[in-house]
Design a protein that fits this description.
eight-stranded antiparallel β-sheet, 196 residues
Length: 196
Amino acid sequence: MGKTYERIEGRLRTFIEAQPMFFTATAPLAGDGTINLSPKGLRGSWAVLDEQTVAYLDFAGSNAETVAHLRENGRITLMWCAFEGPPNIVRVHGRGAVVFRDDPRWAGLIGHFPDVDTSQHGLRAIVVVHAELIRDTCGYAVPLMTYDADRDLHGKRFAREDDASLSEYFTKKEHVARSIDGLPGLPLPLPATPVV
C-alpha cells in the first residue's frame, strides 16, 4: 500500500502544495529528550523548492522546539494528510536547516512564499528540509474534514509587533531561547528583518 519515491514531483508535489496544513516531528539526540510534533498552517507558508527540497516559514509562537532540535541534529519528518478527496498521507523524512534572518540564504528563499504577508506573523526563520526518504501511504483511517479558511488570529496578534517588541516577547517565553530540554533555540535578540 505504501510506496517510496526518489523525487517530489508530479502528483506528490501537487498534493503537498494543495494541503491547508501539515505536521512536523523532531526529537533531540538524548534518549529521554522531549519529542516534538507540531501542526503547521497558513496557506502559502510552505513550498517545494526542487525535487529533493521543501521549505516552510517558521512563525512566532510560544516555543521553539523544532528549531532547537534542528540546530542540534537536523532530523525532521514532515507529514501531509488528505482530509478531503482521495485518502493519502505523504511523509518526507530528511535533514532540516534553520535559516535565520541574518543568513545570506534568506533573500533567495523568502521569494518562494509570495502569497504570505510575512510582516503580519512574526516571521522568525525559514526551515529548509532536504529529503532523504519520501513515502506515501493509504490514509484510509484519516477522517474526512472540510477546510473552511485559515484562522486570522495569528496574523492579528503578531501584526502589531516590530523586531524589537517581538524579541522582547520571545525573551519572556520560557522555551524560545532554550528548548524544554535546554537546547539552544532562537538566537535572541532576533536579527533584524532584512529589506528584500
